[in-house]
Write a structure and sequence with these properties.
TIM Barrel, 8 strands, about 40% helix, binds 3-methyl-2-oxobutanoic acid, alpha/beta
Length: about 270
């Protein structure tokens, strides 16, 4: 097995021009598979809201939800760096709460936490978390916890002033101590400028090819999502595979073709 991925591995990968591969996972089997495939970073994302729990947004996710899924993922990961999302309002309100909530995620097995935005309170929280030894991944651009402020899932950084603000936010999270930065749904040219302007690795999603790495959502790349999104690619069509398998199972049960003697038990006479 290649060496365990640590936060400093990502810094080295950026320095060596090696791309970082990241994916979300929400349970034990998906974590095991992602780790076996050699993915570098596994994120227990608050996208669990949309992908697993059937919510429209990530706002209903609470600390208990992430902790529950994190513990399952932890049991399946050996090599990848395991990052846990900090849910809406678990940081960015009070710095003390942010540190205790991040600490709870670390005690449940996370090796880093991820926070969205770069408001003064978020920056203060990043500094405080890093100050007690918790590595923090930052997240800018289309940050889903602010979806109602954005008015929908829309490209961010469209105007020169929005682009300038994102460049400054990237500098700010780096200065606050973040060890890496997710850039979501921003123009590829802006992601390139940000990537060149910071020393921490950038990990894109809907941010073009110039980031230091890529993160995608498990259900999107495996074709489990109901919709196909522009920022993603379906490497398999597991929805179809599963539907066909379930239909065949139902059919065989109804036709008395399953179970057969091969799946049945009997005692010797
Ligand atoms: O929750 C999530 O899945 C994320 C990624 C899209 C970066 O934050």
């Amino acid at each position: 097995m290649p060496d365990k991925v640590a936060t400093r591995t990502l810094q080295q990968m950026k320095a060596q021009g090696q791309r970082i591969v990241a994916v979300t996972a929400y349970d034990y089997p998906s974590a095991q598979l992602a780790d076996a495939a050699g993915v570098d970073v596994i994120l227990v994302g608050d996208s669990v809201a949309n992908t697993v729990l059937g919510y429209e947004t990530t706002l209903p996710v609470r600390m208990e939800t992430i902790l529950h899924h994190l513990q399952a993922v932890r049991r399946g990961v050996q090599r990848a760096l395991l990052v846990a999302d900090m849910p809406f309002l678990s940081y960015g309100v009070s710095v003390e709460d942010a540190v205790y909530n991040a600490g709870a995620l670390m005690q449940a097995g996370a090796e880093a936490v991820k926070v969205e935005g770069a408001s003064p309170r978020v920056l203060e929280s990043i500094r405080a978390m890093v100050g007690v030894g918790i590595p923090v991944m930052a997240h800018l651009g289309l940050t889903p916890q602010s979806i109602h402020q954005f008015g929908g899932y829309r490209l961010q950084g469209r105007t020169a002033s929005e682009q300038e603000a994102l460049l400054q936010a990237a500098q700010a999270v780096q200065e606050a101590g973040a060890f890496s930065l997710v850039l979501e749904v921003i123009p590829a040219s802006l992601a390139k400028r940000i990537t060149e302007s910071v020393s921490i690795p950038t990990i894109g999603i809907g941010a073009g090819v110039h980031c230091d790495g890529e993160i995608q959502v498990w259900h999107d790349i495996l074709g489990l999502s109901e919709r196909a999104f522009k920022h993603t690619k379906r490497y398999a069509e597991l929805r179809e595979v599963i539907l066909n398998a379930l239909r065949q199972y139902a059919d065989e049960v109804r036709q008395r073709q399953f179970p057969t003697p091969a799946q049945s038990f009997e005692v010797d006479k």
